[in-house]
Amino acid sequence: MEFIISKGETVAKCTSCGGELTSFVKGGAEYVWYGHAEHWSGQAPCLFPVVCRPLEDRVIIDGTSYPMKKHGFARKVEFTPVEVKPDSVTLRLTESDDTMAIFPYEFNLDITHSVTEDGFTTEYKVTNKSDKEMTFCIGGHPGFNCPIFEGEKFEDYSLVFDNAEGAVAHNCDLDAGGYMSPDMPELDYIKDGKMDLIYDRFDFDAVVVENLPVKKVNLVNRNTGHGVRFEFDSYDAIGFWTPIKMGSPFICLEPWNGLPGGLDETPDFKDKKYAKTIAPGESFVTAYKASII
After folding, report:
1. Which of 50, 77, 110, 240 is an S-S bond match for 125, by CB 3.0 to 4.6 Å?
2. What is the pLDDT along the chain (293 residues), one digit of tens a residue?
């Protein structure tokens, strides 16, 4: 099921399959990645209840091991609309027999997409309906067209941070299965508060940035100043990704509460870096915002 929401000259589309925002158009320009399968069929999936690949492709909850695929299950299932307005839509995923078999909690995952005249916000709200504490990770994976306009190149763009002092950037360790490894060297891609986009910087998968003092970054064309401002205040880390060695015309800005499995952790869910734990009846809310520059 598709939903169209708008505000002024901006128009966005959302789908109940995975709860994704699949389009954002302003001034005739499309900012969200089209989702061409030859590069990547996703567009802006929600990563829940894990971010990236968990260690050994499993999680341990209360002493029991459960299989868990990369990025979890939310991005592949049907959500139910719970509120539809002209400029926003809220979609809900709740537990099922299938989810309980691998994630033994009763929960609501509400995704709200809303648009303004210059951008959009995606909010995730996780509610624990179980009678025990619930531990989980959650993250976004929105893809943005890069370049945005004809005549531009991917390499014309940079990621410009409001403040990157003390930030640390790493790749995942592909040789170790795509996990975070304490042996991976720190990357020197961020210089003077910006990271220029160069395809071979993503030959080892996502560039993962932690310890940003300000959770704001601009995806901007250095020649024109045009681009997208991305704010992710309620997230612990961010990943930047484009497919390896494909020259794909997009980049994903991925705000994460959680990280790929670490070789220095265990599969126990409560051992995962940046995982969140909420008590019965509690909710956790996080959001990211994109604005047109």
Report:
1. 110
2. 999 999 999 999 999 999 999 999 999 999 999 999 999 999 999 999 999 999 899 999 999 999 999 999 999 899 999 999 999 999 999 999 999 999 999 999 999 999 999 999 999 999 999 999 999 999 999 999 999 999 999 999 999 999 999 999 998 877 777 788 888 888 999 999 999 999 999 998 899 999 999 999 999 999 999 999 999 999 999 999 999 999 999 999 999 999 999 888 999 998 899 999 999 999 999 999 999 99
Distance CA(71)–CA(45), nearest Å, equals: 9
CA–CA dist 285, 169 (Å, integer): 26
Q: What is the rounded end-to-end Cα distance, in angstroms, of the chain?
A: 31
The DSSP 8-state label assigned to residue 251 in this structure reads E
CA-to-CA separations, 146 to 13, 251, 252, 261, in angstroms, rounded: 19, 6, 9, 28
The candidate with the shortest Cα–Cα distance to 74, out of 113, 41, 121, 107, is: 107
**From its phi and psi, is residue 65 left (phi > 0), alpha (psi between -120 and 50) or beta?**
beta
**How far is residue 196's CA from residue 221's CA, in Å, rounded to a whole number?**
10
The number of residues making up the chain comes to 293
Dihedrals phi, psi of 270, to nearest 5 degrees = -75, -5
Q: If you search the block for the tokens 């990563």, which residue do you land on? A: 47
